[in-house]
Amino acid sequence: MSKYNGNLGFSVCFVLCSALSASGDGAPDVKKVNTAIVPVPGGSETWMSRHNAMNARTKEGHVDLVYIGDSIVASWKWDGEPVWDYY
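and the corresponding structure tokens:
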């Protein structure tokens, strides 16, 4: 047994595996898109109705700040109404 037999076997296996993976199934390479970074609308129309309502309100004028937040912030419209009305 030669001292090169182990390396030769590895080399042959590496070349064979490389050739097989390079040949593939003959299909063209398709660039995969990371769907986690592609913006898409949410699952319901709630956000769009809020978006349209805020745009309509700002078009009425006298708007210095539009504060958009999550559901907790949205609840301030009702829960915090006395405070908003006061100030």
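(Above: one complete record from the training split.) Residues 51-87 form one domain.
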